[in-house]
Structure formats: C-alpha cells, structure tokens
Amino acid sequence: MKSKFAGIVFIIGSLYYMIAEYVSAFAYNDSLINTYLFHTISELGIPNINSPLFFLMNSAFIIIGLSLLFANYYKFKEFIVKNITVFYILTAITSIGVIIVALIHAGNPLTEGYHSLGAIMAILGGNILLAIISRSMDKFDIYQKITLILGIIGLIAFWVMFFNIRSVYMPIFERLSVYTLILWSFITGIYLLKEF
What we know:
It contains 8 helices and no strands. It is mostly helical.
C-alpha cells in the first residue's frame, strides 16, 4: 500500500509540474514556442506582467519538491541498499532547492544569488541524486539503467547551461537538465505502482 501511495505522489507531482509549466508558458507574454526556447523556467515564476500565472509555476516548484521529499523518505528509501546517507542528503538538497526557487524569484538583484543557489541545489543535486540512486539499489536492471542515463543527460545539460549562461539558447539546456528529474519522478511512480 505504501508503494502505491508513494507512486501516486510521484506521478501527480510530475504531471502537475508539466501541466503547470505548459499553462504558465501559454499565458506568458510571448508565443508558446518562443517561451519554451528563449525564456527560462524561472522567468515563468516571476510576479510581473509578462507572467500572469507566475503563482501556478511557483506552486509547481513547491509541489514537485514536496512530492520528491515525501515519496523518497516515505517509501523509495526502502529500495536503497547502499549510500543511504547520501540518498537522504541529496533528496533534501534537491527538494529544498526547488522550494527556494519558488519562494525567492529571479530578476531581483538583491535576491538573485539565493535564487541561483536554489536552482543549483535542485538541478545539480537532483541529477547527482539520480546517478547515485541508479548504483545504490540491489540490482541494475532497466529501471536503474534509465535512472543513470537520465542523471547523466541532466548533468551534461547542466554543465552546458552553466558555461553558456548568457547564450540565447540557455533555456533549452535548463529545461533538459530539469526535465530529467521530472521524467524520473513519473517513471518511478509507475515503477512503484508495478512493484506491489
């Protein structure tokens, strides 16, 4: 029963995030394609005239952060047979980072550093977490291999983004590095539902 509940939490959190981002992007003061290609996810959460549904995007950050924290600590921890302390720490870092992104917005010179710190905690921490999880379970089957591939893709996208922060295409790499964790959450939800 715990597995199914945690699986549902993972699935709801990931679906809510993707839907909320899409709706926020659709309402953004640019075309939908331009918003996804040339505007960062953080821009969708800034309270201003460009993003009228900023509160929806910020709620998605909070929900994905809380769902990851809850589902990992509530049930998924039981699948981790080694590196358990690292698993707990990285889960906390990732979840807190995402919530910081929601509560401290980009674009304000006084708080930009805190927002960036939250983003690094969420993206870098989250993709390292995936790589650690893939090698910390009692087997290395298709689920673990997918988890490892997602973590590697996310880390590569993060570093490309980090060293091209002023590139017009930076938002593409940002989304690639974020979507790995969102996709993993959805896949893990299905994995937990099928386990029991």
